[in-house]
């Protein structure tokens, strides 16, 4: 289990989690490694090789959640997207993606009942930090998150105190007024490239309805969100031949926060300017050009 340490100069958090070095690793991507080549811990029939399920949608499961055998923190779970070893989000049918989102909600509600915040994330491919091929997401829960999540939380409070409105509500109003950074607009979500994107082709998905947490969305929004997730990963796939990628969900239990999703494809290697100076260089396209390309590929 990991231990937090904080840089005394910058206050930046690091988790020491050396046990994770023992994780099994696969180098192939989903769809390129047959289940006969190795034993997959996440495939149906191998449940005895993993910790017991903390959630499954039914006994003959479509989605299964287990404790991570190599946790970063104490509350760290794996959400197995489906029994199918080779199908990622873009390959699953719509109802299966809905099941995955319901698993997100179940676990966020579970930890929320313990007054914990959650960070839900998905890694696809080795460059994105995935060690196992079988498609899955992860969730970690803490009493409070340092780093970016804490900064966003504090910023949302300051912004509300100064302007009596929500930063993310204002952001999507600005984005929709200009349209040139919009990739997709649905009845419930806006998908766009942030003005100050840190990586080229970084995407943000923001719900139109102000809610601090993902757990408050209704069935209509769940269905809409499932469709949006699939369209985004398909757009990356069409534009860049299914690159390694990450997405994460920023969600808090209380106002004035506004939950949202970040997406990024791994199209470059970070250099000293990013890692040493903390200055992000988005060098492949302007936000407007990136949005245009992804619109054309959605």
From TrEMBL:
Ranges where the Galactose-1-phosphate uridyl transferase N-terminal domain occurs: 76-143
Keyword set, alphabetical order: Carbohydrate metabolism, Metal-binding, Nucleotidyltransferase, Transferase, Zinc
Cofactor: Zn(2+)
A single MF term (Gene Ontology): zinc ion binding
Domain of life: Bacteria
Active site positions, chain numbering: 136 (tele-ump-histidine intermediate)
Cofactor mode of binding and number, as noted: Binds 1 zinc ion per subunit.
UniProt binding sites for Zn(2+): 40, 43, 85, 134
Residues covered by the Galactose-1-phosphate uridyl transferase C-terminal domain: 158-242
Name of a matching Pfam family: GalP_UDP_tr_C
Family indicated by similarity: Belongs to the galactose-1-phosphate uridylyltransferase type 1 family.
Protein name: Uncharacterized protein
